Amino acid sequence: MRYFFLLFICIFISNNVNAQIYEVGVFAGGSNFIGDVGATDYISPNQLALGILAKWNRSERHSFRASVIFSNLEGIDAKSDDPRRKERGYEFDASIVEISLGMEFTFLEFDLHTIGRKGTPYLYSGITLTNHDNYYFSTNGEYTSENTNSWAFGIPMVLGYKTNITNQLILAAEVGARYTFSDELDGSMPDSEDREALSFGNTNNNDWYMFTGITLTYTFGRRPCYCNF
What we know:
By secondary structure, this protein is mainly beta. The chain is built from two helices and eight strands, in the order αβββαβββββ. It has an eight-stranded antiparallel beta barrel with strand order 1-2-3-4-5-6-7-8. A hairpin with a 4-residue loop joins strand 2 and strand 3. The longest helix is centred in the first third of the chain and has 16 residues. It is elongated.
């Protein structure tokens, strides 16, 4: 009976501890914007993006993930392939703070408890909340602040590859699109209803932006319990 009780406790602890492996780390890379102002290249980082992230590796195939990333979004019509945008000549530069929460899925098992080098492609998605200042373009094309800020909801779609470089350090490279439920990030749609007449571009198409970069995370947490009787 005593051995049965010890075995039960060991299995219970093993199953719970196995799920309590965490990661904390940093993101570094670049951002680019896709909207009504500037170029429309999908992957073309032109501004620095830095952030922090944390993960809870719930199993060898999925993790809960949270991150905060700081960057600027830039759009310059002169760099666009569209001759109409080049002729218009608008420019914008807006700082953003993105908070993201979601789930990461690996294509292969990524067991942090086994010894040796391992790697796998992965997908990440969830929700984003992006804070940005509000701007608009005046009738003479001047980029003007509204002296307000807004939060834009969005959906991240990230593809990456990660590998462990030591027993506790994991390096990953990823590219991720963010589809936002807003058309205000580039100033093409003023936040104030009083300036609605100054809207331009495709009002049926919301703004996108991309993050391309690497993450470096440190893993910690107790390893599984193995009982020997």
